[in-house]
Amino acid sequence: MRRAQRIKIFIIIVVFLLSIWYLYPTLRLATISSEARGKMDSGELARLKERAVKLGLDLRGGMHLVLEVDKSKLSQKEEARDAVDRALEIIRNRVDQFGVSEPLVQRSGQDRMIIELPGLQDPERAKELIGRTALLEFKLVRDYKDMKALLDKTDEVLSGDKEEKRKEEEAELKELFKESPAGSLEAEMGTSEEEHPLSYLVEFLDQKNGQVMVPEEDIPQVDSLLSLPEVQALISQDMELRWGAEYKTYREGQIKWLYLLKKKSELTGAYLTDAKVTIGGGLDPEIANQPIVNMRLDKRGARIFSRVTGANIERLLAIVLDGNVYSAPRIKSKIPDGRAIITGIGKMTEAKDLAIVLRAGALPAPVNIIEERTVGPSLGEDSIRKGIHAAIIGMILVVLFMVFYYKGAGLIADLALILNLIFVMAALAGLRAALTLPGIAGIILTIGMAVDANVLIFERIREELRAGKTVRVAIDAGYSRAFRTILDANLTTFFTALILYLVGTGPVKGFGTTLMLGIASSMFTAIVVTRAIFDSLTAGREVARLSI
Amino acid sequence: MELLTGTNLDFIGKRKIAITGSLIVILAGIVSLIVHQGPRYGIDFSGGTLLTLHFSQPLPADQIRDALKDVVVEGKSYDFSRSEIKRFGPPTDVAIRIEEMETGTRIGDAIKASLKAKFTNYIPPKEGDWVLKHEKVGPKIGRELKGKAVKAMLLALLIMLIYISIRFEFKFAVGAIVALFHDVLITVGIFSLLNKEFSLAIIAALLTIVGYSLNDTIVVYDRIRENLRLMHRAGYGQTINTSINQTLSRTIMTSLTTLLVIFTLYFLGGEVIKNFTFAMMIGVFVGTYSSIFIASPILVEWEARSAHRRR
Questions:
Q1: Count of C-beta atoms within a 10 Å radius of residue B46
Q2: Do B166 and B276 belong together in one domain?
Q3: Residue A118 sits at the chain B interface (C-beta within 8 Å)
């Protein structure tokens, strides 16, 4: 055997062994039963998983989110510049505490981030957790008289509008009839709703604090009245109206509280050091057997809290999260130890998530979900099963076709094809690239295209044989003449695959990856491997006929 | 076994018929695109929400439509009953497509909640079994993806043009690029004629078609280049025709093996990549056809024109 030939075979064997080494964890994971998996050492299992071929979100199930940081409300340039960095850090913290394995949080471009959560059970909860701003503020509730004054003024403006309109209409009527129908119109006035459009819908519980109850069915109406610009203008600069976070039961009906708060917050979540969930005790129905979040403030926060509580005994201090009032307990005494609780949360899971976001901190600016792709685990499993099924059948068909058409040479090409598949999978594992459904399609496609190189070579060899050359010469000529064609043809496909890899995201990127790997590996197997086999078979003896 | 070897079919002589045929198909596609006001974009490009749900028993689209009449999203009621509702594979699986409203609204979650409340008996106990897919693309992202797709397409074509110009001659590059446009236009046209949806995966398919078709064209071109050196006496057209015949066996073989696997993918690969494999199927057919009937005849036409000018 010639030296070059020996080196070639050596290289092929090395590549093959390397591939098996890279593929071993994947094969091992695929073949062990779930029982044996349970018995395995968790560290070893993690190592296997780390080195096995990764599945993309579309096969494994999970959530892919693209978030955009809404910087429109950030005033200073500096603030806007690192807002995305801070948001990224905070969201990473939240995601880490959410408890999915191998989450990905990554910055993408100027003000976006990509989040990937594989194998997620409750996508809605995840979105809630990731997307909320989680700005915690402590704000004092204004007095009864402030709220009353605001309601009265609002009523006046709103009914005044009507009054004016009525007067205009009246004037028009007068114009038309040249007489006064005023008397009859005046008589229709005086219903409470018309004179007090806002106050009519709300109810005070006591005459001390600036909070009112609004029945569930009236909330949209109150909301739309309050959003009118002329009403907004009435609310003084240092005050704001805020809704309660949850519905409460009152006299067999559902209500929400509407609070008038001092706009400037006394304290924010920035001073928080810890937040934990416990179940409340005692007799107060707001707390007993309800999940509550226990917060701890740092030294500075505790000092501020102590001062604020000390100075405002008997007033209500609202705990506001993202603009919604969770509770507004009465300050009974000065609180010096920097501890506070949030009640009125509802479900336990929500309390847990609340504690997570409070610990991770508030986002510097709101974020919007601008892209979301969630694949359920059952569709993922279905896709893997069908993809592998199609790959095996496609492979068998091509293998049979090649043997049928090219006989012994076809068999050699088939061997190269199988090696090609092993190399591509090993490369995926080695590069830690994810296998996606289009990726499987890419592999199947390379199965079809990998034989192309051999078809080109074999057709050339056939031509040379027809021209009357000997087997040896025909093989040499076939390979050398086909090589340039194969290189040109494969390079162009490689370029398109590269573009797909660079421009595409997620699944499409996966397609580009496998296509590139497939092309590279198929050139090796179709040219080097098959040549080595041919040479070994024809070396040292005169072959009269070639099975091609 | 040998097929199609030693053929001497007159491809170049039939080029007028082939080109006319191609033009008719392309024109039909363009008319369809005009009538439909552009390709039928999926949510990837137009933005919107796509929910793919699996019910434990078949649920008629009309009932779902009824349930979508009144959906409460963030406190306000909306009517989504005019959304597109279609089967996704088996009769128990349904895809609902909702047009995008404002950014930040969580329409998909609201619709899921409302369907959950109305069809309790139809919904599998595990959330993961019910929601097969939930996709939402904001309008801004949709526009960006569209721009990216067009850029990727043009970039691919430009790289091909440069590559072939370097490896062959400029006229070969022009012939190949015309053939690629031909393939892409026909595939897009057929998608429009069949009213199939245009998604990101289809762009990936188109790019792969570009790669595949060029692969095919280059094999023929390579032989033409070789023969132009060997066959001094034969005319340009005849040389090209011989080259096509010499590579015909290989062209058909490769197309057959590739189509073999694409067919298996189409029938066995599942609903998710059906459109993708369909595009690939058209592309491989058209790509094979174009390297014989479009890319090579263009060289003949080009040569005839420049020879005329020289005279």
A1: 21
A2: yes
A3: no
Q: Complex ipTM, two decimals?
A: 0.86
Contacts of A389 in chain B (CB under 8 A): 268
Instruction: Report pLDDT for B61.
Output: 87
A216 close contact with B: CB closer than 8 A? no
Domains of chain A: 3-53+376-538 (1.20.1640.10), 58-135+369-375 (3.30.70.3400)
Tokens 């130890």, residue located: A337
Residue with tokens 């009152």: A250
Residues shown for chain B: 311
Q: Which of A335, A219, A202 is nearest to A267 (CA)?
A: A335
Domain count, chain B: 2
Token pair, residue A178, equals 């040249």
State the DSSP code for B115. Answer: H
Do the Cβ atoms of B246 and A368 come within 8 Å?
no
Kindly identify which residue of chain A lies nearest to residue B101, measuring between CA atoms: A370
Domain limit, last residue, from B118, B137, B156: B137
Tally C-beta pairs within 8 A across A and B. Answer: 221
Q: Does residue A135 sit at the B interface (CB-CB below 8 Å)?
A: no
B69-75: which pairs have CB atoms within 8 A and are 24 or more residues apart? B70/B114, B71/B107, B71/B110, B71/B111, B71/B114, B72/B110, B72/B114, B73/B101, B73/B105, B73/B106, B73/B107, B73/B110, B74/B105, B74/B106, B74/B110, B75/A219, B75/A220, B75/A223
Q: How far is A347 from chain B (nearest CA, A)?
A: 17
Residue among A333, A327, A328, A341 nearest A313 (CA): A333
Q: Which residue of B has its CA nearest to A406?
A: B1
Q: What pLDDT does residue A182 have?
A: 47
The CB density around residue A453, as the number of other CB atoms within 10 Å, is 27
Tell me the C-alpha distance between A177 and A185, whole Å. Answer: 15
pLDDT of residue B236: 87
Chain B residues within 8 A of A118 when measuring between CB atoms: none
Q: What are phi and psi of A103, to 5 degrees?
A: -75, 160
Tokens of B137: 């693309």
Same domain, B108 and B217: no
Looking at the domain assignment, is residue B256 inside a domain? yes
Chain A residues with beta carbon closer than 8 angstroms to that of B109: 124, 127
C-alpha distance from residue A475 to each of A400, A408, A457, A486, B249 (Å): 23, 14, 8, 16, 18
- Angle, in degrees to the nearest 10, between helices B200-230 and B170-193: 150
Scanning A267-306 for CB atoms below 8 A from B yields none
DSSP string, B159-178: HHHHHHHHHS-HHHHHHHHH
> Based on C-alpha coordinates, what's the Rg of chain B?
25
User: Does A444 sit within 8 Å of B265, measured CB to CB?
Assistant: yes
Across the interface, do A386 and B133 touch by the CB < 8 Å criterion? no
Shortest CA distance from A448: residue in chain B: B258
Q: Look up the domain containing B292 and give its range.
A: 15-42+142-310
Distance from CA of B221 to the nearest CA of A (A): 9
Please indicate whether, in this complex, the C-beta atoms of B211 and A393 are within 8 angstroms of each other.
Answer: no
Alpha carbons A85 and A82: distance in angstroms, whole number: 5
Around Cβ B97, how many Cβ atoms within 10 Å?
18
Report mean pLDDT in 10-residue bins for chain A, 548 residues. Answer: 82 93 87 74 80 86 90 72 85 85 86 89 85 89 90 84 64 60 42 74 84 88 86 87 87 89 90 88 79 90 93 91 88 88 82 86 86 88 87 90 90 92 91 85 77 89 90 90 88 86 78 89 90 84 76
Global confidence as pTM: 0.80
Sequence length of chain A is 548
When CB atoms are compared, the residue of B109, B260, B269 closest to A398 is B260
The verdict on residue B173 lying in a domain is: yes
Nearest Cα neighbor of B263 from B282, B249, B250 is B282
Q: Does A320 touch chain B (CB under 8 A)?
A: no
